[in-house]
Design brief:
alpha+beta; Alpha-D-Glucose-1,6-Bisphosphate, Chain A, domain 4; seven-stranded antiparallel β-sheet; 3 helices
C-alpha cells in the first residue's frame, strides 16, 4: 500500500538553525514520538524501536532513519525503513526550507506499507499517518524553537 502526505509548517527560528537541527540524528532522536531504545549510529543515521497503534493493530517496529541527501541550508531527504509484527514500512520524506525567522518548511512523505498494517485499509492508515505527522511536527517545532 502506498501513502502520500504533504504539508507545511512555520518555525520561529533562523533557517540555518532549523536546517542544522533537522539534519542532526541526535536532535531527531529526541523528537520522535512513541520511540524507545533510540540509538544514534553516526552523523547521518539512527535506529529506534517505535510503538505504533492503528485501529485494533498494535505493533512494535524497529526502524532505521538515514539522512540520504542534503542541500544546505534548505533541503534534505530522509529515509526511514523498518519492520516488525508482520509488517514493513519505508518512508521517504523531503523537506524544503524558505524564509528566515520564521522559517517556513514544506515537506512531502511517501510511504510504502506491507504486511498486517497494509491490511487495515488506506482510509484508516491515512488518518493515522496524518495524526502522527502532526504530532511529529508539533514536537519538532517546540524543540527547534526552544533550542534557538
Amino acid at each position: 500500500m502506498q501513502l502520500h502526505l504533504e504539508g507545511s509548517n512555520s518555525m520561529k527560528a533562523p533557517k540555518e538553525k532549523v536546517y542544522s537541527l533537522l539534519t542532526d540524528p541526535e536532535f531527531i532522536a529526541k523528537t520522535l514520538p512513541d520511540a524507545e531504545d533510540v540509538n544514534v549510529i553516526d552523523g547521518s543515521s539512527l535506529e529506534a524501536k517505535l510503538k505504533l497503534r492503528v485501529a485494533v493493530v498494535s505493533s512494535t517496529m524497529k526502524m532505521k532513519l538515514t539522512i540520504v541527501r542534503t542541500a544546505p541550508p534548505s533541503k534534505a531527504t530522509l529515509v526511514a525503513e523498518g519492520a516488525g509484527s508482520g509488517s514493513s514500512l519505508k518512508i521517504t520524506s523531503i523537506f524544503d526550507l524558505s524564509g528566515d525567522a520564521p522559517t517556513n518548511m514544506t515537506w512531502t512523505a511517501d510511504a510504502e506499507i506491507t504486511g498486517l498494517m497494509a491490511g487495515i485499509g488506506s482510509s484508516l492508515l491515512k488518518g493515522f499517518a496524518t495524526k502522527k505527522v502532526a504530532e511529529i511536527f508539533s514536537g519538532i517545532t517546540r524543540a527547534v524553537e526552544s533550542a534557538s
